[in-house]
Amino acid sequence: MTRDLFEELHLRRVVNASGTLTAYGQSAALPDVVDAMASALPHFFEMDVLHARASAAIARVSGAEAGFATSCAAAGITIAVAACMAGRDPARIAQLPDATGMKDEVLIQLGHCVDYGAPVTQGIRLAGARVKTVGTVNGTARSLFAASFSEQTAAALYVVSHHTAQFGCIPLPQFVETAHAHGAPVVVDAAAEETQLADLVATGADLVICSGHKHFRGPTSGVMAGRLALIRAAYAQNRGIGRHMKIGKEGIVGLIAALDAWRPARREAEIEAEKARIRRMVARLSLLPGVTATALWPEPDPYPIMRARVTVDPAQAGLNAMALSVLLARGDPSVRVRAHHVDEGYFLIDPFTISDAEADFICAQIEALLQLAPAEKEAIMGELAGLSAADLWARSGEWPHLSI
């Protein structure tokens, strides 16, 4: 009999229209992944051999020499930096995060110092490394980057994400070329960009990290692909700081199943279905007073996806984009739209994590909320007055203080 966890644990159902965000559980695992994980849980394995099987699966998908399954992409960043600092030296591995006597400087462009739920620079510092930023938010000259290397440089980190500055930064191929000219390995954080994994490895980057639980639709996990020597150094961190971030047997088996199921053709078919879903939503939402809905393709993101942009005119709708997104989230089921841009008067709807039925439900909820009484609309507008999208995001990370 299928268990209803929402009933058992007294949870609200979530309609995730924001994409593969950690805050809502990333994405739904493939059925084959679920079966593989359930099959693994009752059994014991030689974990080194299981990791070797994962390495082979990652190498096959990425084109890299080897791979390493981590507990998540964030853990992968810290482990990768530690690998660049300590190599396979057991004394140094045990010593970290005390980096005394080691190269401990990691270069990163200032325009790449993003927060993905935690600062990417914190992931570097957790390994015991020092962060050395290069350039400004809106520009890094390649000559300045070249001049920033020192005898203490252990690695250079590059972030592939729509959250980074989208102009003025050094392109990855030139970043790799410059770092290698100074004898430094390049670590790439491409957490949500799994579909680019092979292309990123092909740039010559030494370690490329992405999530296993977003577009691959595996369990919570991370994928590290790269040069064999550094992968071995990363794996050696299982006897060091990596021990605190280890992935379990079921996570490794589930990730292997997800990678085995990964086919670019599958994703292309999914994209076409998503486009049709978004176009239907745009047509329906465009009929509402105060709402302007448009389809965006491709979205300004390294990953090709069509999203719906929903712009709300408070003069006509009685609500602004922030208020409408908050009211959608407060419902049951809770509808979570991509609300990064509510300060600018709009939010996005991501089709990857919703079904056709859920798309219809979202449209119906928006229609109902726009019909609220003027007094109810005024109350929510007053409650949110003066707040920003960053304020709302900070609230979402607070301990909920729920009674048990």
Series of secondary-structure elements, N-terminal to C-terminal: HEHHEHHEHEHEHEHEEHHHEEHHEEHHH
CATH superfamily of the largest domain: Type I PLP-dependent aspartate aminotransferase-like (Major domain)
Shape: globular
CATH architecture of the largest domain: 3-Layer(aba) Sandwich
Strand and helix layout:
Blueprint (H helix, E strand, L loop, with lengths): L4 H4 L5 E4 L13 H10 L6 H16 L3 E5 L2 H14 L3 H6 L9 E5 L10 H6 L4 E5 L7 H6 L5 E7 L12 H10 L4 E4 L7 H6 L4 E5 L10 E5 L1 H9 L12 H13 L2 H22 L5 E6 L10 E6 L1 H4 L3 H10 L3 E4 L8 E4 L6 H14 L4 H11 L4 H8 L8
Parallel strand pairs: 1-11, 3-4, 3-5, 5-6, 6-7
Antiparallel strand pairs: 2-8, 7-8, 9-10, 10-12
Keywords:
alpha/beta, Aspartate Aminotransferase, domain 1, Aspartate Aminotransferase, domain 2, 2 domains, 7-stranded mixed β-sheet, 3-stranded antiparallel β-sheet, 17 helices, 12 strands
Plain-language structure description:
It is a single chain. The protein is α/β, with parallel strands linked by helices and 404 residues long. It has two domains: 5-21 and 265-396, Aspartate Aminotransferase, domain 1 (Alpha-Beta Complex), CATH 3.90.1150; 44-262, 3-Layer(aba) Sandwich (Aspartate Aminotransferase, domain 2). Helix content is 42%, strand content 15%. The protein has 17 helices and twelve strands. It has a seven-stranded mixed β-sheet, with helices on both faces. A three-stranded antiparallel β-sheet has the order 9-10-12. Helix 8 (172-181) links the parallel strand 5 (153-159) and strand 6. It is globular, with a radius of gyration of 23 Å. The chain starts with a helix and ends in an 8-residue tail after the last helix.
